[in-house]
Every structure is written in C-alpha cells, then in structure tokens.
Write a structure and sequence with these properties.
- The chain folds into two domains: 14-248, Alpha-Beta Complex (Protein-Tyrosine Phosphatase, Chain A); 256-424, Aminopeptidase.
- 41% of the residues lie in helices and 19% in strands.
- It contains 16 helices and 14 strands.
- The strands form three sheets. A seven-stranded mixed β-sheet has the order 8-9-10-11-12-14-13, sandwiched between helices.
- A hairpin with a 2-residue loop joins strand 9 (306-312) and strand 10.
- It is globular and about 70 Å long.
C-alpha cells in the first residue's frame, strides 16, 4: 500500500493506516487521512469523485479563516461535516528568515507555540477524531501543504495510538516525497519565481524530533500535555482511539507475484526508493537519501539489466534491480553472476519476509541464465544489513574501499556472494 493517494490537484494526501501501534496491532487503513489543502478540490472532476469514494465523513481544516477566504475550502457536500479549527494563533514569516537560520529548531519552536496557543482547537480536533473513530467513519484533516499544522495533529493522534516516536518522525518526513510537486505548484502560481521561504515544503526529521523533545520538556509527556493542557482524559482518549482504530496484524498474507518493470514504472520506483530512504533515516541508518536516484536512473537500469516489482494482490510490496555486470564494486569479471541492487520493500505494509522472498526470486532469475553466483554489496558502515544478507546465505567476499556511483563521493562497501546450489548441484 502506498500511503500517498494519487490526486491531480492534491500533492500530500496520505493514509495513516498500516503503521504498527500499541500491543502489536496496526492502524486500520482507510480511517485516518492527512492532506494538503482540500480547497484545491473542485466538483465534477475525477479528483472530487476519488475523494468522495473514500467515504470520508468528517473534514478538519486547520488553516486560518483568511487562508480559506483567499484560497478556498473544500466544496460543500452532504456526505461529510466540515470543521474549521485554526490551531495556529501567531503567524510567522518564514519567508523573511535569514538563509543561515537552521530550519529545524526554528520550526520546532513554532510548533511548540501552536501547541501552547491552540489548545481549544487542538482539543476539539482530538474529540472529533475520537467521535469519528467510535462511529467507524473515515476522517481527514489538513492545512495548506499538509506538513506543519497537519504534522502536529498527526503526531498527537499517532502517539495516542501507541505509535513509536521513530515511526512518528518518519510519518512527518514523508512530506519530503511531495516537496517537489508542492514547489512546482508554487512556482506556477507565482510566475515562475522561486520562494524565499526557507526550506519550502521540506520536512526534515530534526523538526519533529526537536518538537517532541520540547513538548516533553515543557509538559512531561504527550499524555500529560493532553490531560493537563488540553483538559482531556488522555488514558480514556487513547483507549477509545485504540479500540476503534487499531486492528490485529494480518494472520495470513497473499502470496507475492512478480513482474518485470517497464519505463512507465520509473516514477513509482523513485517514490518507493525515497520512501525506503526516509524509513532508514528515521532509524539512524545513513545509507540512502531521497532524491539520489531519479526516473532516468531506473530507465537506464532497465535498458542495461532488469528491474523487478513484487506485488501482494494489487498492492506494491517491493522491487529490486538485477545487473549483469558491476565493475564499480567487483571489477572486471567473467559472466558468472547476477548482481542484486536496491532491494527495497514498502515500509510497514509489505508482507513479513518480503525482502527475503524477493532475494530468492532474484537468485532464481540469475540461475535461469546459467550463472552460478548471486552477488551484492552493502555499505561497510551498515553491519545490520550485512548480517541480514549473511543470514540469507551470503558470505563476505571482500571489500571495495572506494566505490564510485557517479555522485562524486566514493564510499566503502562490503562485497557478498552466494553460490546458487540449485544450479550447481551443491548441497
């Protein structure tokens, strides 16, 4: 499942379902949505039909009334109730900041101000979330870009549901996937000019980490903030949300199916890789970063080798690249191996064991060509990933201390290989 639901006008509409939460359960898909401005929706359009098809019964608009007057609100419809709860009381002029200002501490301070000023509105928003949960009705909340005010409310709701802080931070950073489109829209509305807004559309993890730390410092915990500052019974609220919005993790999963990627899949692969990169960064794994691989990269890999996609029913579960040579890491070699790269799964929603099953499928494909080895590499500074591959039967074959991938910064990798027993007859 891709969290970003595709719309023509909306850039940051996301389903919060599937995140692991309290007691080993997960958030039910299709019940909580966060978004950029729903005022961009228009009646009698495919976007409007797509939105109505989600069955949303409550919409919370976190923007100022003047923003709504200037930029519009979601069209009226009898299928949902609309609430304007402007949680931000002190406007701030981010566009006027000195370029040298660190956006992380600056935004974290603004979020804390919102948490302290907008208590009446935040309280009501949480009550509405609980009411929608009890009624088993989907709810959406949004601001302008779906990042700051929306991110603050999402953090509170996710925390009450028992989502761990690392995943909470990861959810905040997913706006990074929408940032290029948000920036493009801004340019289009402003005659092609570049925004002076520092970090426009960006959602670095440091912002949410610092905000959560500050909230804890000032209030003790999120639960203490909800109880003492908002005047709600945090344990009771959390119990209500967990009872109605959480579900057991599936006991069974559909089998994976595979297909070779085509050039039309390039954007999908970029999105998947960037999602995986944000998952890693939220957990302190500095291996991939969003934006490093573009659509041209994946189309080139399809031309020079193969790229494969894995699906669980109709939902994308993961992908990998298969190369037939890899001189940058392994040097000149005879055609005795396939080289597996960018093994990646959809965070939180891929069936358990998807990575291992994709690895086995890649090995099967390599063996079908008559090559006796599967090879891959991982950052020498990532022992967890090395251990993962070793558990899958790979052994260390050496180290390349200065691998170059065209980005201008050579790095050290550990080389691993596996002899394909089903081909060679080895036991």
């Amino acid at each position: 499942m891709d969290r970003h639901i595709r719309f023509d006008a909306l850039r940051n509409f996301r389903d919060l379902g599937g995140y692991p939460a309290a007691d080993g359960r997960r958030i039910r898909p299709g019940r909580l949505y966060r978004a950029d401005s729903l005022g961009k929706l228009a009646e009698a359009t495919p976007d409007w039909s797509r939105f109505l098809s989600l069955g949303i019964r409550t919409v919370i608009d976190l923007r100022y009334p003047w923003e709504i007057e200037r930029n519009g609100r979601i069209p009226h419809d009898a299928s949902f109730t609309y609430h304007n709860l402007s949680i931000e009381h002190r406007p701030y002029n981010q566009a006027a900041l000195d370029p040298g200002v660190d956006v992380g501490p600056y935004l974290a301070e603004r979020y804390l101000e919102v948490a302290q000023d907008g208590t009446k509105e935040i309280r009501r928003a949480l009550e509405l979330v609980a009411e929608a949960a009890e009624a088993d009705e989907p709810l959406a909340f949004h601001c302008a870009s779906g990042k700051d005010r929306t991110g603050l409310l999402a953090a509170l709701v996710l925390a009450l549901l028992g989502v761990d802080e690392t995943t909470l931070v990861e959810d905040f950073t997913l706006t990074e996937l929408a940032a290029p489109a948000l920036l493009s829209d801004w340019r289009a509305k402003n005659g092609g000019r570049e925004p002076t807004w520092l970090g426009f559309g960006r959602a670095p993890a440091s912002v949410m980490r610092l905000f959560l730390s500050s909230l804890t410092t000032h209030h003790g915990s999120i639960e203490d903030y909800v109880t003492q500052t908002l005047g709600l019974d945090a344990p009771s609220l959390a119990q209500t949300l967990r009872t109605h919005l959480l579900e057991p993790a599936p006991a069974t999963w559909p089998p994976l199916t595979y297909r070779k990627a085509t050039p039309s899949d390039a954007a999908l692969l970029v999105h998947l890789r960037d999602s995986a990169a944000l998952w890693q960064l939220a957990r302190g794994i500095d291996q991939w970063r969003p934006g490093e691989k573009d659509e041209a990269h994946f189309r080139r890999r399809m031309e020079e080798g193969e790229v494969w996609l894995a699906y669980a029913d109709e939902h994308l579960a993961g992908a990998w690249e298969l190369w037939w040579t890899d001189p940058a890491a392994w040097g000149p070699r005879p055609p005795d191996a396939g080289y597996i790269h960018r093994l990646m799964t959809t965070p939180h929603t891929a069936p358990p064991g998807t990575g291992r099953r994709m690895l086995a499928e890649a090995e099967k494909r390599i063996a079908s060509t008559g090559r006796p080895y599967a090879r891959l590499d991982c950052l020498a500074s990532n022992p967890r990933l090395r251990a993962y591959y070793e558990a899958a039967g790979y052994t260390v074959a050496g180290e390349q201390r200065a691998k170059e991938d065209g980005l201008g910064s050579p790095y050290a990798v550990t080389l691993l290989e596996k002899r394909l027993a089903h081909l060679t007859g080895d036991q």
